[in-house]
Amino acid sequence: MTTLHAIHEDPHLLVLDKPAGLLCVPGRGEDKQDCLSARALAQWTDARIVHRLDMATSGLVLMARGAAMQRALGEAFAQRHVRKGYEAIVDGLLPAADEWALIDAPLAADWPRRPLQKVDAGGKPSQTRWRVKHRLAERHASHLWLEPLTGRSHQLRVHLLSIGHPILGDTLYGDEEVQRRAPRLMLHATWLEFAHPADGRMLRFESPAPFA
């Protein structure tokens, strides 16, 4: 099993950089047992999952050490006290601006096509802030900064699709052309910011996107 490199490690928590293509937790079947949580447990026997990234998404994952810290960090996520930032490359040219734009669209499970999600007026409130980092005119694409204000399943992927700019390489929500234009889902969890549950000091961790 591949050894993990911790961006941060202390007696209470871990911050790991997950590669694209690795599950956060085990899936169904023998071929889906290798995952971030299993690799972490092999190195830190008290490591516990607090939140997840999609298998296709790379970037920062916060893990607790022990049950008490798992509860504390879980509560921090539930109360939206953990801020998360992402980068993505999406189809189309979006207008560059100094101000953040907001996608405010409720999301619900698309039951006939599970595990897909969809925008649905009866769904859970969901908000994503976005801003253009670079316009990639030669690729008819835009490199975005993203900050989800809520933490719904597939939120960033569905929100960007809903405004007509799917993430390149998205095999769940993109059409054949969108899938063909990138070797992977072009979505990376770039930064995490939160107060350490043990002493209250503010922490911020960053991981540069492995694409441009």
Radius of gyration: 17 Å
What's the helical proportion of residues? 10-25%
Biggest beta sheet summary: 10 strands, mixed
Give the termini separation.
Answer: 29 Å
Count of β-strands: 12
Shape, per Cα inertia axes:
globular
The structure class reads: alpha+beta
Order of helices and strands: EEHEEHEEEEEEHHEE
Q: What number is the mean pLDDT?
A: 95
Beta-strand share of residues: 25-35%
Helix tally? Answer: 4
Uncertain spans:
none
Entry keywords:
globular, 34% strand, 16% helix, 4 helices, 10-stranded mixed sheet, alpha+beta, 212 residues
What does this structure look like?
There is one protein chain. The chain has 212 residues and is an alpha+beta fold. 16% of the residues lie in helices and 34% in strands. The strands form two sheets. Strands 1, 2, 3, 4, 5, 6, 9, 10, 11 and 12 form a ten-stranded mixed β-sheet that branches. Strand 3 and strand 4 form a beta hairpin. The model has no long low-confidence stretch (mean pLDDT 95).
